[in-house]
Amino acid sequence: MKYLSKSIAVTTAVAASIIPAAVSAETLPVSAVYAAGQDAPSEFQTLVVERFDGNEGAKFALELRNALSRARIDGENYFEVRRDSGLGEGEGPAAWINGTAFSEVERLPAGTTEERKCVRKDADKKCVEYRTYTYSCRELTVRLTGEVQMLDARDELVYDRGFSTTGSQRYCRNQSSVPSVSDMVTGMVDRFAWEVRRDLAPIQRNEDIRVLESRKDMEKPLRKPFKKALKLTKSDWAAACAEFDRLNEAQPGHITLTFNAGLCREVVGDLEGAVELYQRTLELEPGKDYPTAGLSRIASRQRAEEQLAIHYAEPAEEQYASGEEGDVESETAASGAAQ
Predict the structure, then answer these.
(1) Which of 130, 150, 297, 122 shows the shortest CA–CA distance to 209?
(2) What is the pLDDT of residue 25?
(3) Helix/strand/coil percent split, the chain, to 5
(4) Distance between CA atoms of 313 and 44, rounded to whole angstroms?
(5) C-alpha pair distances (Å), 297 with each of 36, 133, 244, 250, 311
(6) Which of 32, 76, 106, 269 is most enclosed, with most CB atoms within 10 A?
(7) How far is CA 52 from the centre of its chain?
(8) Contact at 8 Å (CB) between 148 and 97?
(9) Alpha helices in the chain (DSSP H)
């Protein structure tokens, strides 16, 4: 496989703009769109985040709008996110999101703590007497519960997720500050809003994936060029991939060379080629996590392609109305023929 600079630049334009030419470890840049957790939301282009009930409803609704608004593919918003149902003309298929968010706070005794303090010093300011003080402690527990539902224009449920999470912090009377309930709730709200965003929208991610570096069982004439290829990953990964491919052809069935060649396929979007080489790596070394992780990334990318195709598809025309007109025309034509 030829790794041409032009084709690579097009395929991984996002990665090239973010990942520096030289990185600290022997890695290859993978830039890709990975699937949302759920497929059904893919058909919607506009989301109306309505009112959430509960004492944390307003906070959760706001953070969810923000999280969904930050979902972008190639710099473009994935959803049009609104807070009311006044849809404009020409807006894509819409869904409505609502639900509940409640927080509960509990403070309970949590034992004691001791602190040894100096109570008397000599003329040289050296402590000559200590005293141990005992302080009572409490456990602050915050629980966040709720539910998120998404309905389509027919009021049919297309997404439903409940949540319940708890956080606790222990504090004692000798501390200068106590935990903030507001901060704890905010952290929980942010985390769950992000989880819902991951359910509803794909994510575009740029990451550096480590190549394998082991030369165990590698033929001696290949070791020096392999070492050179590893160095090239820091400055010219296209050249490194070309060398990994050549070495893999020279010694088929070597674990390191097979995996690295597969990673090169993944980098340029040859997903079928990458799958074949990752599966071969697993055959050579069953149970290893690095080819399994590669296969998982590719499965997510392939699923994301299907989601994006649905999301960006042109809205289907109203077949029902046209079908009715067609029936009328057919009946008229048949009536005329009978006459």
Answers:
(1) 297
(2) 76
(3) 45, 30, 25
(4) 10
(5) 12, 56, 21, 28, 21
(6) 32
(7) 24
(8) yes
(9) 5-11, 13-18, 57-69, 181-200, 220-232, 237-250, 255-267, 271-284, 289-311, 319-338
Considering only the C-alpha atoms of the chain, give the largest distance between any 2 of them, rounded to a whole number of Å. 127
Half-sphere exposure of 154 toward its Cβ, with a 13 Å CA cutoff? Answer: 3
For the 40-201 domain, the top CATH level (class) is alpha beta
The Cα–Cα gap between 210 and 229 comes to 13
What is the pTM (predicted TM-score) of this model? 0.81
What angle, 0 to 180 degrees and rounded to 10, lies between the N-to-C axes of helices 237-250 and 255-267?
140
User: Going by DSSP bridges, is the β-strand pair 46-53/203-210 parallel, antiparallel, or unpaired?
Assistant: unpaired
- Retrieve residue 240's tokens: 């490194």
Under the banding of pLDDT at 50, 70 and 90, the label for residue 314 is confident
User: Using only C-alpha atoms, what is the Rg of the chain?
Assistant: 30
Instruction: Yes or no: say if 39 and 304 are a contact pair by the CB < 8 Å rule.
Output: no
Neighbours of 149 (CB within 10 A): 17
Report whether CATH 1.25.40.10 matches the domain 5-33+206-311.
yes
Give the pLDDT confidence of 263-302 residue by residue, as tens digits.
Answer: 999 999 999 999 999 999 999 999 999 999 999 999 999 9
